Structures
1.
Amino acid sequence: MADISLQHIYKTYDQSVTAVNDFDLNIHDKEFIVLVGPSGCGKSTTLRMIAGLEDITEGNLIIGDKLMNDVPSKKRNIAMVFQNYALYPHMNVYNNIAFGLKLRKMKKDEIEKKVKRAAHILGIESLLDRKPKELSGGQRQRVALGRAIVREADVFLMDEPLSNLDAKLRVQMRAEISKLHKQLQTTMIYVTHDQIEAMTMADRLVIMKDGVIQQVGTPKEVYNSP
Ligand code: ADP
Ligand code: ADP
């Protein structure tokens, strides 16, 4: 269960830039939330605070019934996918996906089961022995997703995961991520500056500007509002 409550959250950088200004939102378990808005409006900062990669200046982050503000990133049951899917160039796909599990000293056969399941979900079973440089952009992005899937986290955070892909592939991957969300039954928080992407994927949109939430609603509600 992963209801996420962001209660009056602020982020100030260098005691001057207010990147996030009174972000207040309840996210339901298994909901697909999209944070959308122009570059610099505070989307990534919000995501990074949820991930524990950035301190919260003020306000509370609660996941389930637990106050998370001071819980280190590693101890949060969260998986994250960034736009520049930093794969390890010298490792094959299998080991790129398995890397985090190996760090956790999981048993070899258990790792293999999880990697193969993720690869099956993503349709990359035939690519496990390839190196990243032998993959297309879309295939690399799937490997990055595979890495996140094997963490079996309750919460998935994605920061512009498709922005390096060409237009056609972006449309295809949007549908795949929506499908993945249904399959994994996780709470998703997805950041994009692309309004169409936001509209097609979100259960609810959170529209941000200058660090402030402008509007929250379903795509229909947002689209129909003046
Ligand atoms: P977005 O993801 O919507 O593009 P960000 O969250 O990256 O926006 O940035 C929000 C604001 O915070 C911007 O004004 C940005 O310049 C500033 N900012 C982001 N990261 C830092 C940082 N590490 N130090 C100082 N200012 C930052
Ligand atoms: P080496 O350390 O000899 O270079 P690798 O890095 O290729 O070997 O593999 C490290 C581990 O990952 C090994 O335990 C190997 O069995 C496993 N592995 C790599 N690729 C695959 C694959 N396609 N299917 C199953 N296991 C794999």
2.
Amino acid sequence: PAPPCTLVIFGAAGDLTKRLLMPALYNLAGAGLLDPGFQILGVDHNESSDEALRRDLTQTMESFTKDRSGEFHPDHIDDETWGFVCARIRFQKGDFEDPESYAALKERLTGNVVFYLAVSARFFGAVVEGLGKAGLLKESGDAFRRVVIEKPFGSDLASAKALNARILKQGDERQFYRIDHFLGKETVQSILAVRFANTMLEPVWRRAFVDHVEITAAETIGVEARGRFYEATGALRDMVPNHLFQILAMIGMEPPKSLDAEDIRDAKAALIAAVRPADPGEAARGQYAAGTVRGKAAAGYREEADVAKDSRVETYAALKLTIENERWSGVPFYLRTGKRLGTRLTEVAIRFKPTTLPLFHADGVGPAPGNVMRLMIDPEQGIRTGFTVKRPGPRMLLGQAETHFAYGEAFKEAPSVGYETLLYDCMTGDATLFQRADAIEGGWAAVEPLLEAWKSGEPESYPAGSEGPPSAAHLVERDGRAWLRLD
Ligand code: BG6
């Protein structure tokens, strides 16, 4: 198990606590990874009590057995396992901006503490300052004090820098765990193994063999109940400098010196630092209009709750990035993400160059396109690799085939909600899967020209249920390429 500690959750009544943290703690308890000395202290500005919070959280846990829409849907909740977690939950009312809340916390807390900021981003700075000023981030003896910060971390380069500076006044970089939940995904973590533990891949994972790379995070959902958040955020800020850049860094980084957190984070930061600032002329910006998604009518973005009728916020972003280093110079990385598309699909496609041998160029034999290797991140989890082979028959005719591996079939381990590893790592002090200040700032720096350019003009409209705006297709077609189809 992880060392005994108290997990203080700011925003204990919120959605993140219910939907992700509690299921993750339940799974950790089930796996025997929580120490008997583990405690949870929920802090929220609403009135509640130990009993009421336990009752609420028990109800939500039970609702997951009926709700099949989220990541966590067990057949039943094991009473003993949930009892272990539930019995450790306490509540404290607290205003995140009131020093007295922190003084009260100080009275209750000793030893190892992980402070989890499951609160709106506007409180990140204030909570860390509250903790620091109350002396709650001082580590004495072996006891650790760590702070987990959710995204979005800043809303552009300047605000991310300011937030980093503000929190780093209160504690040391190694005490801060900036979460990017994509790094909690097994399929994202596995990229490191796929790339560096397979002799047949590492030699070809470079510009001599790779024509381009596509990174896609397509969603069928709209903004749901998050109109207010999304109006201030948009697809670019919501997904690109954080989630997609974390994938980009895993795909592009050099082999780290070791599996130590700092070596891995150095390798990722070096890759992100080599990304050239995005060019607004090589990007696409879209917003969904009414349409049909999987047979169901869907409203346009401007009709959603808490969204302005003339909103210019993008719900789709595509961009071309270049990386100036020995491995990737000249290889474009195309990134795209959007809501209300026809398919839910998060994947990386490595598009290899076609063979240069003239052997198969004769009429009717080919074509022999470049191989495509697709690292399927969500919801399908696995790898699809395309091959050119000979079609069975008397003549040499080429055909396309695909091999497919699925994590769920190859391994029997229970699927996780993604936050188990992140929480466990934080309790054990492994920062590998968390973002360091330099990587966050590097992500913002790379998209800064788009943030600037997109302050004016209109996003291009695309019907809900489609593949996105036409300009996203043009972005790659101009280079003589085409996105993999979203189906
Ligand atoms: C979140 C974004 O960080 O990631 C959401 O705020 C998005 O808008 C979500 O839907 C996607 O995550 P996942 O794990 O569902 O692919």
3.
Amino acid sequence: SASIALRGVHKSYGRNTALDGIELTVAEGEFFCLLGPSGAGKTTTLKTVAGLEEPDSGAVELDGRDMTGVEPYDRGVAMCFESYALYPHRSAYDNLASPLRSPKYRLPAAEARVKVHEIAELLGIKGLLERPVGALSNGQRQRVALGRVLVRPARAFLLDEPLSHLDAKLRQAMRAELKAIGDVRRTTTLYVTHDSVEALALGDRIGVISDGRIVQTGPREDIWHRP
Ligand code: ADP
Ligand code: ADP
């Protein structure tokens, strides 16, 4: 997988400054949590890495390569948003396999099958694969949606509050699963949350973002011990 770096990234929407000089590095294979309140600039940060927004100034690098002008499609990262798009009438299996059939990956069916089963095993949804997604519970659907991102052979995962719509109990269970998946896969992950418990549970390191700036970065132990 790829390392990620943001070097002095600025981004404004009109007079509204979303990112005010973001400096951030995520090492190859690291699970990095970006923690901050609503409006701090978390989603915009992810979008600049994904290439969905270009910085006004500063640069984003993947594996040390400047991504300025590189199309999202060519960056090789997989991003998931707060709200997922699933095909409700199609099976969980199809929902997981369809990204792999897309022109971007074009995996042979047999290989896709292995990957889908691997991710379904990790997410505990192997028994649900034949069911239409519309017939699943919220928590099951959220697992499929997360699986749809994690199944991709991406250089990095960009996850935007993927557990935010779950109740506390389910969130806790999925947190543990995400942690386990992160430990197994070791794919660079930039994970955005406003929930400090979640960040502390998941992040190898945590960056605290406020008003478009990174105000603190460190291993979770350091962040934990500060007020
Ligand atoms: P977070 O993800 O931490 O909630 P965002 O990155 O979504 O924060 O937003 C950061 C700031 O940029 C906020 O003030 C938000 O209102 C503003 N913003 C984000 N996207 C847009 C947009 N498309 N148009 C105008 N303002 C935006
Ligand atoms: P990709 O990885 O290129 O997004 P997908 O198989 O996930 O490939 O999606 C193929 C197309 O279908 C994309 O344009 C995507 O935006 C769209 N799409 C995904 N989910 C839905 C949905 N639930 N309803 C309608 N369109 C969707």
